Amino acid sequence: MDVPATPRSLPAPAGRATAAGGAALRRAAAEGTLGIVGAPFALAAKLIEERGFDAIYLSGAAFSAGTLGVPDIGLFTRDQLVEQTRILARSVSIPLVVDADTGFGGPRQVEETVRLLEEAGAAAIQLEDQLPAKRCGHLTGKQVVERAEMEEKIAAAAAARRHTGTVIIGRCDARGVHGLDDCLSRLHAYRAAGADWLFPEALASREEFARAGREFAGSAPLLANMTEFGVAPLVSLPDLAACGFSAVLYPVTLLRLAMKAMEAGLAVLAADGTQESLLDLMQTREELYALLDYDPAHPELHPAARDEEPRP
Q1: How far apart are CA 12 and CA 292, in angstroms?
Q2: How far apart are the first and last CA of the chain?
């Protein structure tokens, strides 16, 4: 049975543990194709929610690069991912989908990963079938585990969850290794092992998205990855919905936009010695405070100030 989601008023550093919002995520996906935007930090998560999106995504690639400054090759620890999950989940009321990479080990480690991420506030937990020395799904040189090994991980994840609504996402990276037929065949096996949603990574054409949609029509919700500069074409959400996909990820979009804007801003600062010409491109102080639900005249009224839990 799902516990009601923690109210939005409980902010990241001080809020209590957030229950999984998987049931809400499942309902939203049943009503229409979801756009799930990667949140590189908590303020971005708040903006995603404020703009009406249905869910946020904790991308392993964005977390590796944006928070830790390292490439997406499995360098962050489970504890680091759990803490980032906790921060993002407590900053918003919409569901959080978490990229748990390969699950940080075998089936027993996957069980623990699922429990920790649920406790931190994950509504959905994504597991992929790459070897532990993983890499971005849109790069060459990937390697995948044996099908049976991934089936064991999926089954362990499904059995370990404590909230019935928590969504287990089985991601398959075999398209770029063994071809589309093997990818789709593996996804059928992952579904049988207990995956709720299926994620065929790095499909190479619109026809491949359409074929995946036909393959799993009426069988399982499908997740598409619309990352930029990858092997997949950038297909619109309505077109992916028409192909039969239930959700679309935009994992690194906001981070890429922010970094390009910062590059431009630094160039202006270096050239002009002032940021005055950039003011129209900035979020104002008032807009920031509104997003933070903060009244500077009454700081004691902010939920973080009223929270009775001790800060870490």
Answers
A1: 11
A2: 29
The rounded percent of the chain whose pLDDT value lies above 70 is 91
Quick one: 200 exposed, middle or buried, by C-beta within 10 A (0-12, 13-18, 19+)?
A: buried
Place of tokens 């190479």: 204
Distance CA 248, CA 193 (A): 23
Burial class (CB in 10 A: 0-12, 13-18, 19+), 177: middle
- What pLDDT score does 173 carry? 95
Beta bridge partners of 198: 170, 222
Task: Give pLDDT tens digits for 91-117.
Answer: 999 999 999 999 999 999 999 999 999
Domains in the chain (CATH in brackets) are 22-253 (3.20.20.60), 259-306 (no CATH)
Residue type, 307: D
Mean pLDDT of 290-295: 92
Tokens representing 45? 């998560």
Torsion of CA 100, 106, 107, 110, to 10 degrees: -20
Q: 166 falls in which pLDDT band (50, 70, 90)?
A: very high
